[in-house]
């Protein structure tokens, strides 16, 4: 067996142990804590990250330096995302929206997960670092109540696109998130809820540290491995329904 195959097996074992620990925790002792799901949008509900896709497609001069500063934590998400959209004139609103609506795909099983949550009385929140003008139209077919969708806002009244931040960090978070997933998660105390985060990347890093279980893809899987956070890698939402079905928290 090659070293990389051994490492891969070791990683799988860690993930299985983590998942076992999480479901044991979820079952609690005596009364089970109801799960609450916090689900990322870009690259999680959608197949790829729409902000990255917009920047790569239109390639406004200067975006690459800003994006690299975000990825290397030199710039906060709030500052970087604000600066990148300010590279566009507001008059491009329709063109950018059309591009996203045309190119974004929804990950398989999303409707199944929503149905499962409804049938099991489980609260489902979209916690997105994306922007309302594309998050809302892409989610419209799914009938998620608007107060269960957290994302950033936008203002096209000036010369350049301005991103606005209706859900800022609370007094505990110093990350300057823009849309603060940690602050949203903290409204559901761990003593009362089994908190589950679903995500893929940098906007999920802070929230992942708080929850009982992470369903992870991509960079978030690597991050969870590094930090030893309980996580289950997934490919699509059918996988997540499968794991939730196995959970014994409903007893
Ligand atoms: Mg994402
Ligand atoms: Zn924050």
**CATH topology term:** Rossmann fold
Give the strand order of the largest sheet, numbering strands 1, 2, ... along the chain.
4-3-2-1-5-6-7
Q: Assign a percent range to the helix content.
A: 40-55%
Strand fraction band?
5-15%
- Average residue-wise pLDDT: 89
Low-confidence stretches: 1-30
CATH class: Alpha Beta
Number of strands: 7
Total number of helices: 11
User: Cofactors and ligands present?
Assistant: magnesium ion, zinc ion
Question: Going by CATH, what is the homologous superfamily?
Answer: HAD superfamily/HAD-like
Number of domains: 1
SSE arrangement, N to C: HEHHHHHEHEEHEHEHEH
Shape designation: globular
How many whole angstroms does the radius of gyration measure? 19 Å
Structural class, by secondary structure, is: alpha/beta
What does this protein look like?
Belongs to the HAD-like hydrolase superfamily. SerB family. Dephosphorylates 2-hydroxy-3-keto-5-methylthiopentenyl-1-phosphate (HK-MTPenyl-1-P) yielding 1,2-dihydroxy-3-keto-5-methylthiopentene (DHK-MTPene). The protein is an alpha/beta fold. It has a single domain, classed as HAD superfamily/HAD-like (Rossmann fold). The protein has helices at residues 3-27, 50-58, 63-71, 77-85, 93-103, 110-119, 132-139, 181-186, 205-208, 218-227, 237-246; strands at 35-39, 123-131, 149-155, 162-164, 194-199, 213-216, 231-233. A seven-stranded mixed beta sheet has the order 4-3-2-1-5-6-7, sandwiched between helices. A hairpin with a 6-residue loop joins strand 3 (149-155) and strand 4. Helix 6 (110-119) runs parallel beside helix 11. Residues 40, 42-44, 49, 199-201, 203 line the site of magnesium ion (MG).
């Amino acid at each position: 067996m090659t070293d990389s195959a051994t490492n891969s097996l070791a990683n799988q074992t860690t993930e299985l142990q983590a998942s076992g620990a999480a479901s044991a925790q979820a079952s609690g002792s005596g009364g089970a804590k109801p799960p609450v799901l916090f689900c990322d949008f870009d690259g999680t509900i959608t197949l790829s990250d729409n902000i990255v896709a917009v920047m790569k497609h239109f390639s406004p001069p200067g975006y690459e330096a800003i994006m690299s500063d975000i990825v290397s934590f030199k710039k906060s998400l709030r500052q970087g995302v604000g600066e990148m959209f300010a590279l566009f004139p507001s008059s491009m609103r329709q063109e950018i929206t059309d591009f996203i609506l045309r190119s974004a795909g929804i990950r398989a099983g999303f409707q199944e997960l929503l149905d499962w949550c409804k049938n099991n009385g489980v609260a489902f929140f979209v916690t997105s670092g994306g922007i309302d003008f594309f998050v809302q139209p892409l989610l419209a077919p799914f009938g998620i109540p608007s107060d269960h969708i957290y994302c950033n806002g936008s203002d096209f009244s000036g010369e350049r696109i301005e991103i606005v931040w209706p859900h800022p960090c609370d007094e505990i978070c110093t990350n300057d998130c823009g849309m603060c997933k940690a602050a949203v998660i903290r409204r559901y105390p761990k003593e009362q809820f089994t908190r589950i985060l679903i995500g893929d990347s940098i906007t999920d890093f802070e929230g992942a540290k708080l929850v009982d279980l992470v369903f992870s893809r991509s960079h978030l899987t690597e991050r969870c491995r590094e930090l030893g956070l309980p996580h289950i890698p997934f490919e699509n939402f059918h996988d997540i329904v499968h794991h939730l079905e196995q959970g014994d928290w409903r007893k």
